[in-house]
Amino acid sequence: MKNYKLPVIVALLIITFFTVFVSGCQNDKVFTINESEVEATLIYKNDFDDDLNDWQVEQMEGGVVELNNGKLEINDVKGCTVWLKEKFEGAIIIEYDVVIVQDGGVNDRVSDLNCFWMATDPENPSNLFENSKSRGGKFSNYDSLQLYYMGVGGNHNKTTRFRRYVGNGERTLLPEHDLSDSKYMLEPNKTYHIKIVANNDLIQYYRNGQLLSNFQDDAPYTSGYFGFRTVKNHMTVDNFKVYQIKS
Predict the structure, then answer these.
(1) Using CA atoms, how far apart are residues 230 and 78, in angstroms rounded to an integer?
(2) What 8-state DSSP symbol labels residue 183?
(3) Is the pLDDT score of 32 beyond 80?
(4) pLDDT (tens digit, 9 = 90+) per residue, 99-114?
(5) 107: which DSSP letter?
(6) Which residues contact 121 (CB under 8 A, 6 or more apart)?
(7) Which end of the chain is more exposed for a tag (fewer CB within 10 A), N or C?
(8) In what residue span(s) does the DUF6250 domain sit (predicted)?
(9) Cα(78)–Cα(159) distance, rounded to whole angstroms?
């Protein structure tokens, strides 16, 4: 009788290798940064199909953050930050899709597509969420953090600004990061694909391929947390992904 065990084992090993290889390829993506291609590996993904266990909501009274039809829905009155609880280190790229809703709702204001990234708390370097309750979604309560901030269509859709928070209330705003042209503002009910690059000293923010912020940081923040940020706004978020840039 022939011994089929060895061929079967070899076949299983080949299938396993192929499966792992294909899976790895599916998790890799090539990005173009400053006309150069970089490879990155998917390290976090959330399609908002299950629950909000990965997220920490800091929101002022009257607002609601929930999952609705497979999307993160933020319906806010006075101020809200939704933090991803996972801390990232090193060179990363963040991507997600977002829609600013205008459909007659009380908070359907086309304004303030904002976010924080590489955020840390100098007072609590090992736990960003130590003061989560006291911050409570009030915008000025985040001045004590170290982070990068992008505010698209702020001030009733009249300004788009990038700032670097240093942790002592200083929020540097350079002239080239204070935009007021209409092409940098928001349109209602339009899907925007956001891409954020934190590649060591290179910090960038793209919206639908349009570079809105380009900053070279002499003392870059290379680890921290990401958070969606808004005020008096109704928006949905989907297809959230974080990639680690390969060295």
Answers:
(1) 9
(2) G
(3) yes
(4) 999 999 999 999 999 9
(5) T
(6) 127, 128, 130, 131, 144, 145, 146
(7) N
(8) 74-240
(9) 19
In this prediction, residue 26 carries a pLDDT of 76
- Give me the DSSP letters along 211-231: EEEEEE-SS---EEEEEEEES
In sequence order, which residues have a C-beta less than 8 Å from that of residue 153 and are 6 or more positions away? 100, 110, 111, 112, 113, 159, 160, 184, 185, 186
Task: At 22, list the tokens.
Answer: 């294909």
The one-letter code for the residue type at 139 is F
**Predicted pLDDT of residue 161:** 99
Of 89, 81, 86, nearest to 114 by C-alpha is 81
Residue from 102, 55, 106 nearest 76 by CA: 106
Report the C-alpha gap between 225 and 207 in whole angstroms.
20
Q: Measuring CA to CA, how many Å separate 187 from each of 66, 72, 148, 195?
A: 23, 19, 24, 18
Q: How far is CA 145 from CA 114, 119, 217, 227, 244, in A?
A: 16, 7, 17, 12, 23
Please give the Cα distance from 40 to 83 (Å, whole number): 23
Give the pairing of strands 223-230 and 88-89: antiparallel
pLDDT average, residue stretch 228-244: 99
> 148-196 pLDDT, tens per residue?
999 999 999 999 999 999 999 999 999 999 999 999 999 999 999 999 9
The pTM assigned to this predicted structure is 0.89
State how far the Cα of 229 lies from the Cα of 153, in Å rounded to an integer.
12
Of 67, 61, 118, residue with least CA distance to 232: 61
φ, ψ for residue 226, nearest 5 deg: -110, 145
